[in-house]
Amino acid sequence: MSKILVTGGLGFIGSNFIRYILEKYSDVEIINLDAMKYGSNPKNLKEYEKDDRYTFIKGDISDYDLMKKIVKDVDILVNFAAETHVDRSISNPHSFLKSNVIGVFTILEAIRKYNPNIRFIQISTDEVYGDILKGSFKEEDRLKPSSPYSASKAAADMFVLAYVRTYNIDAIITRCTNNYGPFQFPEKLIPKTIIRASMNLKVPVYGTGKNIRDWIYVLDHCEAIDLIIKKGEKGEIYNISSNEEKTNLEVVKTILRLMNKDESLIEFVEDRPGHDLRYSLDSTKIRKELGWKPKYSFEDGIKMTINWYLNNKWWWKSIIDDKILHPTPWKLRW
Ligand SMILES: NC(=O)c1ccc[n+]([C@@H]2O[C@H](COP(=O)([O-])OP(=O)(O)OC[C@H]3O[C@@H](n4cnc5c(N)ncnc54)[C@H](O)[C@@H]3O)[C@@H](O)[C@H]2O)c1
After folding, report:
1. What percent of the chain has pLDDT over 90?
2. Which DSSP category does 202 fall into?
3. Domain annotation for the chain: domains and CATH numbers
4. Is 127 a catalytic residue?
5. Whose CA is nearest to atom 42 of ligand 1?
6. How many Å lie between the centroid of ligand 1 and the Cα of residue 213?
7. What is the rounded distance in angstroms from the CA atom of residue 63 to the CA atom of residue 304?
8. Which of 57, 213, 237, 313 could covalently link to 139 via disulfide, CB atoms 3.0 to 4.6 Å apart?
9. Backbone angles phi, psi at 40, to 5 degrees
10. Cα–Cα distance for residue pair 75/102, rounded to 1 Å
11. 8 CA to centre of ligand 1 in angstroms
12. C-alpha span between 12 and 84 (Å, rounded)
């Protein structure tokens, strides 16, 4: 039986990953360590609270005394824990340095000293490469982060690579494109659009809405991570993408169409500073070397996601406060 420490497992992708693993494998034990910051939600994994295979610990990855105790006893560590909202990194960069850089450094130190044989998967992001107008980034391309968020993730990647080289730890980095699906915090584009449209409220779109992102259904990302744990090569970086590039405006219009809502709900708002125009990843490496490919098209994934939010109001109703009812540009968070 393998014992997996998942950090940041009460957030969007981490909770989907834990559910995916517990449903797929019976002989697995999961410890979920999460600092329970604003984006986390204990309701995400409520159904596993009484499952013997699942343990939750409230804690911070930058707490060395805690991390050194926990890493001793696990086989695999998958780190999702991070401050993740780009807009928040613009208004408050310091907390991003603490969780995303010091936090990963603390994990690496705990591994190096207390369990150097652990397999460590660092969940990074496509945003570390910066934007690209034509073509797609490969794993060896240089990093050119634009926001304090992506800079903090890039710094963490550098530490991970240095620890593989210097201390020979068994670490792997994944860089995935934009995820969507159930349990995503309502401040992000897709849940915000679905929730606000369902309430017939204006749907904010930054700038002209021409920014392009490549969207992946969260379970495709989870499957890729599972494969990387089993078959990934130490010290490697794997890009993960679905090749479903859409402008933000296309995403919003697709959601409105599928929800039978009028496009007049769209409201263009002041753009985010440093807003990357297009992200694009070349994911040939994981497809060729590990045999991964996405299962869900954007059209299917977005229908499933809309249905999930419409059928699970209990989940988001308590999260949204008046901030979501009064969207504002980046300066005021929403
Ligand atoms: N959402 C995306 O589209 C996307 C795409 C590529 C990569 N990623 C990466 O995937 C990871 C998860 O993203 P998400 O969208 O699920 O984020 P999220 O904000 O939903 O979840 C992050 C979780 O980490 C926890 N956390 C934050 N700081 C912590 C700390 N110091 N110690 C312990 N827990 C802490 C939070 O409480 C939260 O539960 C992040 O590392 C992010 O950079 C996300």
Report:
1. 88
2. -
3. 2-179+217-240 (3.40.50.720), 185-213+244-277+297-332 (3.90.25.10)
4. yes
5. 84
6. 18
7. 38
8. 237
9. -85, 160
10. 22
11. 6
12. 10
Active site residue 206: no
Distance CA 251, CA 212 (A): 10
* Catalytic residue of the set 60, 83, 126, 236: 126
Which residue's CA is the nearest one to ligand 1's atom 18?
Answer: 11
Query: What is the 8-class DSSP label of residue 278?
Result: B
Nearest C-alpha neighbor of 118 from the set 274, 7, 268:
7
Pairs from 101-104 (Cβ < 8 Å, separation ≥ 24): 101/152, 101/155, 101/156, 101/159, 102/62, 103/60, 103/61, 103/62, 103/79, 103/156, 104/61, 104/79, 104/156, 104/159, 104/160
Distance 37 CA to ligand 1 centre (A): 10
Active site residue 64: no
Question: Is 10 near ligand 1, meaning CB less than 6 Å away?
Answer: yes
Query: Residues 156-189: pLDDT tens digits?
Result: 999 999 999 999 999 999 999 999 999 999 889 9
> Per residue in 275-305, pLDDT tens?
889 999 999 999 999 999 999 999 999 999 9
